[in-house]
Specification:
By secondary structure, the chain is mostly helical. It is built from 17 helices and no strands. α11 packs parallel to α13. The radius of gyration is 20 Å and the shape is globular.
């Protein structure tokens, strides 16, 4: 009887925490998204700001060098805090990532936003949990709730947000306790963002799909390509980080050099469309608009891995969505398939392969683009994930990997 009461009390605590964290996560997501939208609009209206890339990179690099060494792990640090007893997400992670992300967007670095907000909310949640002397096991569930709230609220996918929070941490012992709270937190965060009047990115619905062999073989081939793109992205970013660490002893100089390289790439590509969040590229891919360069996917990938690999602050989710959508759209043009359909498939499959979260990405497809293409969502997300092997952008420390069950 006492054991039943204790479990009920804990379930109530998790649900209460889910509502609170979801509401807080939604408010923080709305404010964060508004600040990034301001930064992007300001940069577009004042194009000279891109020439501050090396200076801004140096400032952010120096701040992280002086005060941010423990938080350089990003989302992987959050995973460590879930799996490793004694690990934590430092409180200063929130303001530093916020400021660094806004600065990166303001000068045009090709970085995302979702990964940053997940880290911010997890940082705030873990700081409060540690202040209240919450046990490690309860803190782990709180972090899963925070990840779900951050992803679902900012990107406008309440169900996928919960799947992402549960799937990314790969700890079976946490699933039972965290499932319902994760869905509650993600849903509360989503509606909080909506209530704040912040609009999520509008996406088209995929029309009824004739599911035949002509679609299946294209999906099979495309899945191989999407997996290779995910692997290339992970490997390139990893190699750039290693090269910078080996060649540039003083860390703040790394984003300075990265800023100069990005400016050179702008001259080589003869366009600024690959800078920043690149919403126009995503819109063009999803609508099948003409005029997108055949190598747009490659250019966006290069801009992103250089920005993140040299030390600019921001997320990886949205850039991967755009890279995948551009790859899918170009594949469709070459194989004479539906451009909007394969842009959608590329969007979800490349991220599924890069993050090892195929179920969450299938649900993203359903929530953003409708149910009609569900069979092909499943094919490309699962196959791309399988083909990508153990490559992932969210790699916990070796200690954490050994503790995952």
């Amino acid at each position: 009887m006492r054991s039943l009461f204790a479990r009920s009390k804990q379930h109530f605590l998790f649900l209460f925490a889910a509502v609170v964290i979801g509401a807080l996560g939604g408010l923080v997501s709305a404010a964060f998204l508004s600040s990034l939208n301001w930064a992007t609009t300001t940069r577009i209206n004042s194009e000279w700001l891109i020439f501050l890339l090396p200076i801004a990179g140096g400032i952010v690099g120096y701040i992280y060098y002086k005060w941010g060494n423990p938080i350089t792990g990003g989302t992987s640090l959050v995973l460590d805090a879930i799996h490793v007893p004694g690990a934590e997400v430092p409180a200063r992670m929130a303001p530093m990532i916020w400021a660094g992300s806004v600065t990166s967007h303001l000068v045009g670095a090709s970085v995302g936003r979702e990964g940053a907000i997940v880290q911010i909310i997890a940082s705030v949640t873990d700081a409060v949990a540690r202040k209240t002397s919450t046990s490690y096991n309860i803190r782990r569930v709180f972090l899963v709730i925070a990840v779900s709230a951050g992803f679902g609220g900012l990107f406008g996918v309440p169900l996928a947000g919960a799947f992402f929070g549960l799937e990314i941490q790969r700890n079976a012992s946490l699933h039972k306790s965290a499932v319902l709270p994760a869905f509650v937190a993600s849903t509360v965060a989503f509606f909080t963002v909506e209530a704040c009047g912040v609009e999520h990115f509008a996406t088209p619905n995929i029309e009824n799909l004739h599911f035949g062999w002509s679609v299946i073989w294209r999906c099979l081939v495309a899945s191989c390509i999407f997996a290779l793109i995910a692997i290339a992205y992970i490997q390139l970013e990893h190699r750039i980080k290693n090269a910078m660490a080996r060649l540039i002893i003083f860390p703040p100089l790394r984003p300075v050099i990265g800023g100069f390289i990005i400016l050179i790439l702008v001259l080589l590509s003869s366009t600024r469309v690959y800078l920043g969040i690149s919403i126009t590229l995503l819109e063009s891919a999803l609508t099948g608009a003409a005029g997108v360069a055949a190598l747009a996917c490659l250019w966006k990938l290069i801009f992103t891995v250089i920005a993140l690999g040299t030390g600019f602050v921001g997320g990886e989710v949205f850039p991967l969505f755009i890279i995948g959508a551009l790859a899918g759209a170009q594949f469709a043009r070459v194989t004479h398939a539906s451009v909007p359909l394969f842009a959608v498939l590329g969007l979800i499959a490349v991220f599924a392969a890069a993050s090892n979260t195929p179920l969450a990405c299938i649900v993203i497809g359903i929530e953003l683009f409708g149910w009609n293409a569900l069979p092909v969502y499943c094919i490309v997300c699962i196959l791309s994930y399988v083909l990508s092997g153990k490559h992932t952008i969210y790699k916990p420390s070796p200690i954490a990997q050994n503790l995952v069950v």
